[in-house]
Each structure stands twice: as C-alpha cells, then as structure tokens.
Design brief:
Largest sheet of chain A: 6 strands, mixed
Largest sheet of chain B: 4 strands, antiparallel
Helix content of chain A: 25-40%
Strand content of chain B: 35-45%
Structural class of chain B: alpha+beta
CATH class of chain A: Alpha Beta
Strand order of the largest sheet of chain A: 4-5-13-10-11-12
Radius of gyration of chain B: 12 Å
Order of helices and strands of chain A: EEEHHEHEHEHEHEHEHHEHEHHEHHEHH
Radius of gyration of chain A: 22 Å
Number of domains of chain A: 1
Shape of chain A: globular
Distance between the termini of chain A: 54 Å
Shape of chain B: globular
Oligomer: heterodimer
Structural class of chain A: alpha/beta
Helix content of chain B: 25-40%
Chain lengths: 416, 80
C-alpha cells in the first residue's frame, strides 16, 4: 500500500491498520486515511499526472489505492468552465464552474464510489451496498455492475419512479423501506452492522470520502496548477466540503501548487441548513433538523461531518449561506441560461448562494471563484419544469411565427 | 449480548435530565458514555449500549419518547 500509513482517528489520533473500519474503537471519532506525504512529495510530479489517464486515477498517489485492480467507469476530469456570462451578471471577472454533471452516472458521487468499490473488491467483499435517495444509489449500482459484485441498495419506499429507474437499470437488489426517514436510517445502520457487506458510506467511509478530494485536484490542475481564491460547495453530510479543503491542502503539502488556502464557501438549502445555522449562531454544535427542501440530494438533517465543516470555515475564513427553494430554481435556470449547464437542485443551491454572496459584496470582483455543480439537471427535471415558459405554439405559417416572436420578446434573455 | 453505538441529542428542556442514569436503571442495558458535549441549551452524547437486542430497542424507544433524538454514531446514513 505504497503511500498509505493506515487509518487514524480524527479526534484522538489512534492509528489502525487498513481495514473496513470507520469509527474509532476508543472515542467513536471518525477514522480517515493517513498518508506518508514525504514519500508522495518525493515521487509525484505535475508532468507524471498530466501524462496519466483523463480520470480521477491520474491522482492515484494521493488516493488510498495501491496496485489493486480498479473498479473504473471513467470518472472525473470533468470540465472547468470559464463562466464569463454568469460572472458578468454577478460582477465577478474570474468565475469558473466545475461541471461535474457529466460523470458516468451523472453526479460527483462516482468519485468517492470508484475508490470505495475498488477498496471493497480489494478487501474481498462480495457485496457492495448503500442507502440513498438517488445519486449515491445510482453510482453504487453502476460500479457494482462494472465490478460484477452483488449490489444491494436501500431506498425510501416513497422514492420517485424516475429515480428508481435511474438506479434499477443497473440491476441491483433494490430494497424499498417503509417508515419515516429516521426509522429507515436506523435500520440501515443495523443492517450494516449485522451483515458483512461493503457499505460504501459506512464501513468504507474513510476510503469513500477520499475520492472527493479529486474535485480539488482537478480544479487546481485546470487553473494551471494553482488554487482558486474562493470555492462554493453544495453541502449535505459535509464529506465533500471537508475533502475539497483537504485536497487543496495536500497539493500544497506535496509541492504541486504554491502555498495557498482557498476560502471555503459552504452552500445549503434553507430547508436543510444545520451547518449554516450553527455558523450563523457562532456555535460549533450542530443541531439536527428535519429536512424540507426540493434539494433532496442535500437533505441530510444530521450531517456527520458538520462539526468539521465549521472548523474548515473558521480556518479558511470561509463563508456559509443558504437559499430557499425558489432561489434554488432560480439558480438552476440562471446557470443554464448563462453557461449552458443544466445542474440538479444541488447546483441551484451552489449558484444561488454564489449570487447571494456576490450581491452582498462578500466576493472580490477580481478574485478567482470556483462554483461546484455536482449533479445533472436531468435527475431532477421536476424542480424547474413548472417554472419554465410555455413553448410558443403556432401553425406552420411564417406570418404567425413572426407575429408570435414579437409577442414574446421577454423570452429572449438579454445578458449584455 | 449485542452492542449498539448511538448518538443522543438533547434539546434544551432535557439537558439537565439524568437520561443515561435512568435508562440504565429502567432497562437491562449497560450504558457506556464514549464522548459528548453539553452546553446550556443543547448537547449530544456518544453512547454504547450492551444488552439483548430487544432490551436495547426498548431503551432507545423510551429515550425517543422522552424527546431525545437517537441516531447511529455515523449520523445520517441515507445519502443523496
């Protein structure tokens, strides 16, 4: 395992051998992967990475995977788009969109799951599993198919039919559980405890979370090997937010980018914003909430990494904000109208919070800002469907076409 | 005997209640506090419960009926 020293407790520092463990036996703190950064620094170079595959695996030395065969569906190295139109509207001259809607299963979840699935097979598991309301389920099912492992996915029984299709097409064993959210959550924890399966975000969580660092690695490389000044990250459990921060730190530590510490901007839906609420109350205690938002992929009321998100915000002099469902829809449409990127509701949260921060003067017009859009809009089309203008319906007549077009000038967006 | 690791969240009106002590007295479970933080208006505890599965279930149900939020130590497991 070349560059990995083992697992370490984030709270008490207790070390563990590499194994499917996620909680410290001493203090119940979360475990994470510990690396030998000196060895990585010695062996890694920009040139070697640039010659690597155009996937997350170009950063293999900074992931907890050695020589094991990969479970790879070609995830990552997604576009970093210079967002000139959106930037002009918001008064930001150096705005970029990290378009992670184009991953194989259409969300960023493929990043952590490719790492977790690779590790699951290396540990000898025959079954890979998760509990999810959408993106994670689809990604785990896709990777399970690629690895030809048994795959068991738990979903709430009231999940929308379109989402069930997006998961079911990969042919996992789909288990729909009746009960309220908390009941389902507790049952899944018990199932994970009782069965010797690879639950990607439970017993494989230390490895799983590492995959999200690649969203920092790629952005830095795509900016010409430098960190941005500020990033905006849609946040649910907090694993993505904390790992993007960690990713930039690691690049500095192994000498791939000059010293820098981007301001970390955390974005949540107002209907599920326990981290933003704690930040605004100047508290380090996360009070769980009952989610009520259209941003289902961010609807985690009791975020496991919430406390660590608050630490990152403090350490980076970062930002935190939330947006209403209406502002989420507006954010989705704004991104699509200006940059041609159709993000899901979490993308609307990112863009909505970006807009709020820009309007509040929290962002310098000349700083480099990256906004993360982490899932594809085709996963949540119902979020915007009711807010879009009706098509102009005409008979097959040029006169009627010209007449109709004049009647609808407001439908042509004016950006300049 | 089973072991279960849970996280209790105390709202303001229950912060001063001896919930863990009472749980150990009323149910045949061993309560073992492994971490936590209590402030004036809320708090949380990591608790390991050892006992028969059914008895652990009853102890957790009792705590929830008292108004305590009970979660796995991992927090929310169902992801988006």
């Amino acid at each position: 395992m070349g560059y990995v020293r083992g697992l370490v407790c984030r709270e008490c520092g207790e070390m563990y051998d590499l194994a499917p463990l996620h909680v410290c036996e001493l203090c119940f703190g979360p475990l994470e992967v510990a690396y030998d950064y000196d060895a990585i620094r010695h062996d890694i170079s920009r040139e070697e990475i640039e010659r690597g595959p155009t996937t997350v695996w170009r950063y293999r030395k900074l992931l907890p995977i050695g020589d094991e065969p990969l479970v790879d569906i070609q995830t990552g190295y997604t576009p970093l788009l210079r967002a000139e139109n959106l930037g002009r509207l918001l008064g930001l001259r150096n705005l970029y969109v990290k378009n992670d809607t184009v991953n194989p299963s259409f969300s960023f979840k493929d990043r952590p799951v490719t790492v977790a699935a690779t590790k699951a097979r290396a540990f000898g598991f025959d079954t890979i599993a998760c509990a999810s309301t959408g993106n994670l389920a689809a990604s785990v099912a896709a990777h399970g198919a690629k690895a030809q492992m048994r795959c068991v996915v738990f979903i709430p029984s009231d999940l929308e039919a379109s989402k069930i299709t997006n998961i079911g097409v990969y042919s996992p064993t789909l288990v729909a559980i009746r009960g309220n959210y908390d009941d389902v959550n507790r049952l899944c924890a018990e199932i994970a405890d009782h069965y010797g399966w690879a639950f990607v975000n439970i017993n494989l969580r230390p490895y799983y979370a590492e995959g999200s660092k690649t969203l920092a690695f790629e952005v830095a490389e795509q900016l010409g090997w430098r960190a941005p000044d500020t990033v905006i990250v849609p946040t649910a459990s907090g694993a993505l937010f904390t790992r993007i921060a960690r990713g930039f730190e690691e690049l500095v530590r192994v000498g791939l980018i000059p010293p820098a510490r981007p301001r970390m901007g955390l974005a949540q839906a107002a209907g599920c914003s326990p981290i933003v609420m704690a930040h605004e109350a100047n508290s380090m205690l996360i009070k769980p909430v009952k989610p009520s938002t259209i941003a289902k992929s961010l609807a985690i009321g009791n975020p496991a990494d919430g406390y660590y998100c608050l630490k990152v915000i403090k350490e980076t002099e970062g930002l935190a904000g939330s947006v209403t469902d209406e502002e989420i829809v507006e954010g989705i449409r704004l991104l699509a109208q200006t940059e041609g990127v159709f993000g899901e509701t979490a993308g609307g949260v990112s863009v909505g919070v970006l807009k709020k921060m820009a309007e509040a003067g929290a962002l310098d017009p000349d700083e480099t800002v990256v906004v993360y859009v982490t899932g594809n809009g085709l996963k949540t089309p119902e979020a915007v469907a009711g807010s879009l203008p009706e098509p102009i319906t005409i008979r097959a007549s040029m006169a009627e076409f010209e007449s109709a077009l004049q009647l609808k000038p407001e439908e042509v967006p004016a950006l300049s | 005997m089973a072991k279960r690791r849970i996280r209790l969240f105390f709202p303001a009106d229950l912060v001063t209640e001896p919930i863990v002590y009472t749980m150990g007295k009323q149910f045949d479970v061993v309560t073992n506090i492994r971490g936590g933080e209590i402030s004036g208006d809320s708090g949380w505890l990591y608790l390991e419960l050892t006992g028969e599965d059914d008895e652990i279930d009853r102890a957790i149900d009792w705590a929830m009926r008292r108004g305590i939020r009970v979660d796995p130590v991992e927090g929310d497991i169902i992801a988006g």
